[in-house]
Design goal:
Shape: globular
Distance between the termini: 41 Å
Number of strands: 14
Structural class: alpha+beta
Strand content: 25-35%
CATH architecture of the largest domain: 2-Layer Sandwich
Number of domains: 2
CATH topology of the largest domain: Fructose-1,6-Bisphosphatase, Chain A, domain 1
CATH class of the largest domain: Alpha Beta
Order of helices and strands: HEEHEEHEEEEEEHEHEHEEH
């Protein structure tokens, strides 16, 4: 593993431990601060603690690189940035609050609109998935002070069943039902897999999910790392016109609807549906 990726894994491992400790406090019913942001989404003391830690250590690793974090300043000048860190210190705050355990730390090094270093840490699984553009990803796992490192190998999916990531909570768009109906009409056998946050991308790396349709709002820090990881195994994240997502290209950081594919070839199964519904 390249030295820079090792350094990032060490930072993310410690941040994961901080986040897991915060989660334990919350589960134990200890005093725990949660408030609402301007968009009415929740933010917790855990979000802010991990944000602060990551900003300090990323700043030490690359002192002149700006950081765009969900819990930081939004930086009016960011559209002028070519290279920067994109961070979500706690992706899945609602999963954290509802105690599903499916929350992550998402980190990307963005260069020219692409995530060229992509990492997702899963604190409760003590696992980090990380890749650099042009190379297959690594899985970094730890137990106490022992770290296990493995490189991903290609795994063909089971072509008899399409496994689809779906939210654990009621869907907020009628497009989901229409999409599933289309699959049924096309005689595409599918299985719905419930999962939260960017953990869905990790399940795609592990061959547990094939596609992840998203027809309600996300932000760029929710998808950048997952997209980079998928690209490293032959997948991608597309808008509904079959265009790969690009980052820091617009005045806001909200994503449109998308579908994440473990294999880019699977677009052929959905092209007609999206041509009628985008």
């Amino acid at each position: 593993m390249p030295e820079k990726l090792q350094q990032l894994c060490k930072i993310l491992q410690h941040a994961s431990t901080l986040l897991a400790d915060e989660y334990a406090l919350y589960q134990q019913g200890k005093q725990f601060h949660i408030e609402k942001k301007q968009d009415n989404s929740p933010v917790t003391q855990a979000d802010l603690k991990v944000h602060a830690y990551m900003c300090v250590h990323l700043g030490q690793l690359s002192p002149h690189a700006p950081i765009l974090s969900e819990e930081g300043e939004q930086h009016a000048e960011r559209l002028q940035w070519r290279q920067f860190w994109m961070l979500d210190p706690l992706d899945g705050t609602k999963e954290f609050i509802h105690q599903t355990g499916e929350f992550t730390i998402n980190l990307s090094w963005i260069d020219g609109g692409e995530s060229v270093i992509s990492a997702i840490a899963v604190p409760l699984k003590q696992t980090i998935y990380i890749s650099e553009k042009g190379d297959t990803p690594f899985r970094w796992q730890w137990q106490s002070d022992v770290v296990t490192l493995a490189k991903f190998e290609h795994i063909d999916r089971d072509t008899t069943m399409m496994r689809i990531a779906m939210s654990r909570r009621p869907e907020r768009s009628s497009l989901y039902a229409a999409f599933l109906q289309y699959l049924t009409e096309q005689q595409i056998r599918y299985e719905k897999v419930a999962a939260g946050s960017a953990y869905k991308f990790c399940m795609m790396l592990e061959s547990e999910i094939d596609i992840y349709p998203r027809f309600h709002p996300t932000s760029e820090w929710d998808t950048a790392a997952g997209q980079g990881l998928l690209q490293s195994i032959g997948g991608d994240v597309f808008d509904l016109r079959h265009r790969p997502f690009q980052y820091n290209q617009r005045a806001d950081v909200l994503n449109g609807h998308f579908i994440a594919l473990r294999r880019v070839q699977d677009w052929q199964y959905f092209a007609d549906f999206f041509s009628l519904n985008c």
